[in-house]
Amino acid sequence: MSAGAELPEGPEWNELVRVARAEVQGVIKSLPAPLRAQASTLPVTYEHVPGDDLIDDGIDSDTLGLFVGPSYAEEDITPSPIPPQIILFLDNLWDEAEGDPDFFKEEIRITVLHELGHFLGLDEDDLFDRGLE
After folding, report:
1. Cα-to-chain-centroid distance, residue 21
2. CATH code, domain carrying 64
């Protein structure tokens, strides 16, 4: 799909992942160099929706993204069985965007920046103050 081309209604999973990966790469490239270096080491994975285990742990079924693992500042001092990573729930992001491809990309951008904020140690209030709620 060329730049500016629209996603088909109800796009296939592979297309959602392709668009999401491109948007995530764009977000990381747009960061200032020191943040870009930190963010580029953080894996981003893609799921349809939160699974039963996450929901059992209190994650809402309509969550758009999730940061798991220790924050950047805690990585060396807090042992964790889960490495730091961002999980994007693409079906939820697509639903939030109401099938609008441009809104989908914007939701990915905002969600990635929000979850990167958690990686960098920001809490929900800090993210709200930065317009990344």
Report:
1. 10
2. 3.30.2010.20
Which structural domain range is residue 57 located in?
13-129
Q: Which amino acid is at 105?
A: K
Is residue 107 within 8 A of residue 97, CB to CB? The reply is yes
pLDDT digits (tens, 9 = 90+) for 6-51: 444 567 999 999 999 999 999 999 988 888 888 898 999 999 999 9
User: CA 75, CA 17: separation in Å to the nearest integer?
Assistant: 28
Would you call 25 helix, strand, or coil by DSSP? Answer: helix
Give the Cα separation of 49 and 22 in Å (integer).
Answer: 20
The amino acid sitting at 28 is: I
Evaluate whether residue 5 is within a structural domain: no
CA distance readout (Å), 75 to 22, 70, 81, 82, 120: 27, 5, 11, 11, 10
Per-residue pLDDT tens digits for 64-108: 999 998 877 666 566 666 788 999 999 999 999 999 999 999 999
- 32 versus 63: the higher-pLDDT residue is 63
d(CA 119, CA 117): 5
